[in-house]
Amino acid sequence: xxxxxxxxxxxxxxxxxxxxxxxxxxxxxxxxxxxxxxxxxxxxxxxxxxxxxxxxxxxxxxxxxxxxxxxxxxxxxxxxxxxxxxxxxxxxxxxxxxxxxxxxxxxxxxxxxxxxxxxxxxxxxxxxxxxxxxxxxxxxxxxxxxxxxxxxxxxxxxxxxxxxxxxxxxxxxxxxxxxxxxxxxxxxxxxxxxxxxxxxxxxxxxxxxxxxxxxxxxxxxxxxxxxxxxxxxxxxxxxxxxxxxxxxxxxxxxxxxxxxxxxxxxxxxxxxxxxxxxxxxxxxxxxxxxxxxxxxxxxxxxxxxxxxxxxxxxxxxxxxx
Length: 321
Hints:
This protein is α/β, with parallel strands linked by helices. It has 13 helices and 12 strands. It has 2 domains: 7-148, Glycogen Phosphorylase B (Rossmann fold, 3-Layer(aba) Sandwich), CATH 3.40.50; 163-316, Glycogen Phosphorylase B (Rossmann fold), CATH 3.40.50.2000. 39% of the residues lie in helices and 20% in strands. α12 links the parallel β11 (275-280) and β12 (295-300).
């Protein structure tokens, strides 16, 4: 199989952070199958993480878990189209019954995936239960290694950018005179992960005083939350719903990034930036924390609102102007 073109399908059609934690797969598969053609089924939200990845041959958008007859029809229509491709290997990294069904209906020779529903076992040739005591990226490599009998070792994310992304960064740097920057990602998709906005207001004021020569950039998708912070700290810049790869490049040149759990935190960890991530205990940090030597977790075993503002200030004091 190493000497022929191997057609591989990878499904990861959920959240941004999940795709970041899975992005090691494309690099590790290419090491084992250098002539492979890798097709990825992603969500519209996480597509920007992989769309410049040169190891990927084709990208298909398909939202996870069909909830309407129209969604189900789209799944079945996609499966019919994929069946014509004659894939050798298919992975469902999400662990969805519908994704396992998609692999089955696509007539893929070797179907591999995580399972969260017993029915999925009968649809896959190799399956694993997701062990949340192990980091998600390492768990994904374990799935590859056990199913393909290989020895993939590097779980670190692989986010690729191109010239257009750098031009977008340079334009932003020029128009806002960016030299030293601090990035803050203050909005969470789940309210159980949301640190109080008034805490962010006070933290931003503190950072502005402590680092007067830095521009503070607020990055996120929730315009109401970010606008509230800007109203209380009008010296901040805001980037709302911008190119995720631009965020990656901004993080790379930041003095620090402060983020709630989510896609931004994983992108920051992948960038190598000094990153502080606020995580509530129910998420099992050892399973979902961003990878990176410069990532520090600020953790509470209870509600995220229990994370003390002064503790976050003390953590950021490790970064000098």
